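Re-run with default settings, no changes from the original entry. Doing this only to confirm the output is reproducible before filing.
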Amino acid sequence: MPGFENVLAVRRCLTFATGLVECLCFAGAVFGWASLVFILKTEGYFSSLCVNTTGVNSTHVLDCSGQDEQFSLVFTIASFMNNFLTLPNGFLFDRFGTTVARLFGIFLYTTGTLMVAFSTSALSNLLFPALSLLAVGGILFLMTNMQVGNLFGSHRSTIITLYNGAFDSSSALFLVIKVLHESGISLRASFLFLSACSIIHLLRTFFLLPRNFIPYPLPDRYTYGISCGKSKALSAKVAANGISQRTTEETPLDKDAPVKQEKSFRECFLSRFFVLHLLWLSVMQLRHYLFIGTLNPMLHRLTDGEPSLVSQYINAFAITQLCGVLCAPWNGLIMDRHKGKPRAAGESEQEADLRASVLSLFLTALQCLLFSVCASTPYLPLQYLTFILQVLNRSFLYGGNAAFISIAFPSCHFGKLYGLVMALSAVFSVLQYPCFALVKGALGGDPLYVNVGLTLLSLLAFIHPVSVYLHCRSLASQRARSRAVTASS
């Protein structure tokens, strides 16, 4: 039935396109915090924490370090909730399916936008729950959209990576709101519009996404959406038979492969790979979160508080975030460069994937080191390069995180391990707030020593690729010895 196939093709293309727009325009907006802070400062949020002090030559200056500290705390809590709640959100999604998870995410996101819309300088504390709700709702948008890659077979990983890049780029949403604010459109009007856009999210939920999950591999003539009569029955049958996979699992294409004894979740959690991967993610994520959370006061320091210059650099930072959607697929190409090439004799697919991941893990750590060095250098024009390295490294970091977990561990544990590594890294990222407090307090506003310490800490990320490389080399040596023994016998 060509007509039926055409309808399915159109529906899948609409699902992909609208999902990309949703991730690009909404999901990761909270990471554009620096642009929103610029607006909030002009609106007088937390302005009561600014105090008059005596500067050099007995001049009176306004010290707003307390205000900056509150803004940093808002972002710290929101970024923590974004990662830490990935674990329960993953269980919610796996247990109740796409519709329930998205309705919950839409409710959180809409509540967050309404809280910002009706907040005022007198109700500045509303920012704490509002930004957290935006972060958690946004990550649910991403989580439920990544399964769309299952609709496109051989392009599955590319689409998943693209959605992750779009999530990074969506931080530019707050830049758009900042530009509109400078043009006379109020903060309340912008966030009320974002609240109204929840209608679009609801329409996608019911018409362009399944009630449960998109299975992988995809069954023939698979349909989904509220208008498809077979969708619910097929989805239920797929789920009952255990064919449906979690959205981010890298399910093997070879269904005839021999069943092997998989590691237990506990064995995976206590393994060297998991511990080092957690360290790899945590130290780099802390560097990124501290940079984003302190970008506004850092630019104020480097520009001597010149508002137009601060605005110029914040706009440049937000614009570079748009490039995340372009940078994200590069990491996938690096990790998939061995696909289609003959493997060494006796080498498994997982071993080949692990070997290919070494370069990706190493490049990500190297990018973070270069980014940290540039961010630590108190030279204003250099920050343009810092912005470029930051968005490149961030797109590599999160795509590489999911890809490595899918390669190194059994697919049946992917959801739990992915949620766990994000949750534990979120606990580590809370260190950004005491770092900020240390800069504002004992260091007198000079972040140099903290930046140097974080740069040295980022060197720990290189342990992970070295460990994976040594593991792959050990496996290759074992194969070589086995071949030698076989040949001699």
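The mean pLDDT is 82. The CA atoms of residues 295 and 446 lie 13 Å apart.
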